[in-house]
Design a protein that fits this description.
- The chain has 14 helices and no strands.
- It is mainly alpha-helical and 297 residues long.
- Helix 1 crosses helix 6 and helix 8 packs parallel to helix 14.
- The radius of gyration is 22 Å and the shape is flat.
Length: 297
């Protein structure tokens, strides 16, 4: 794993991908730092991360992760991965840790900004409001966890195709959806009829997706029938009010962006920490399984 990690990290800096990513990240952070904190006099450093999060998710992460596995497929070097003495798990973890290291380097530079801001505030006026480091570094930690989760998602999407462009576009679209999840949830009909029908259709889509994943029609059909049957039983036995706005509540509950908000208030949210680590683990696991499936086929 360490050999893969070193190779990937070296590749980022020899191909200029690493320096360009770090440079763009620092330019964005610097611009918002200048506008919010220096020009307008805000001492809340969390505004910087709130400003750059959309560009980070929709541009930087897709561009950073689009080649990590897709490029291997395009150049047919993925066959070396399948026959390497190192396990697929260690290879994927090595690639992922290289991405996280690149991200961490940029975050380490930005972590100095609150200290600089606090020094400037004290220099300008001794009675001025100082920087709240709990909020500043809480937002810093939350943004790092957010980045870890989204980089894992981008890595998984890259494993689905050999085209870097498709990987970047799909990653961008997926991240747009997750960024707007709460807004989308508020626009959905709240009636129980809509939610029941939507869940029924979703089960069908899940069963079809399961079939393409495992190529077992009987097992996929059994899972679909059991889920549909469970939905019908719950609908008949329970009060229909439990389905009111159910979809909106679920979408809002799993929103990746919303979990970040507590960190910007200086609150160390353990549930959000567990959530981000779980999302990271889930998509790394899916990536590993995807590669193994291709390997065995």
């Amino acid at each position: 794993m360490f050999a893969v990690y070193k190779k990937e990290l070296r590749t980022y800096f020899t191909s200029m991908i690493g320096p360009i990513f770090i440079a763009f990240f620092l330019v964005l952070a610097g611009l918002y730092f200048m506008v919010y904190n220096l020009m307008n006099g805000f001492t809340n450093f969390a505004y910087v991360y709130q400003g750059i999060e959309m560009f980070f998710l929709l541009l930087l992460v897709p561009v950073l992760t689009m080649r990590i596995v897709a490029e291997e497929k395009r150049q047919k070097t993925d066959q070396l991965l399948y026959t390497a003495p190192v396990s697929i798990t260690k290879i994927i973890l090595g690639k992922y840790l290289a991405l996280i290291t690149l991200f961490a380097i940029a975050m380490m530079v930005v972590s100095l900004y609150p200290l600089i801001l606090n020094g400037l505030v004290k220099e300008v006026a001794t009675n001025a409001e100082s920087v709240d480091f709990a909020i500043a570094y809480g937002a810093h930690l939350g943004f790092f966890l957010l980045g870890m989760a989204y980089i894992a998602i981008g890595l998984f999407i890259s494993s689905l195709t050999e085209s870097q462009v498709i990987a970047a576009v799909v990653s961008g679209l997926f991240m747009i959806f997750t960024y707007l999840m709460t807004s989308i949830a508020s626009l959905l009909p709240s009636s129980y009829r809509f939610n029941v029908v939507f869940l029924a259709v979703l089960i069908v889509v899940f069963s079809v997706g399961l079939y393409f994943w495992i190529h077992n029609l009987i097992l996929s059909g059994i899972v679909g029938v059991l889920l549909e049957g469970t939905l019908v039983i719950v609908f008949m036995v329970c009060d229909t009010s439990i389905f009111d706005n159910l979809l909106g509540k679920v979408i809002a509950g799993i929103s990746i962006i919303d979990r970040y908000s507590n960190f910007t208030l200086g609150i160390f949210d353990i549930s959000a920490l567990i959530y981000y680590l779980s999302v990271t683990f889930l998509f790394l696991f899916l990536t590993i399984q995807r590669i193994k499936k291709v390997r065995y086929n």
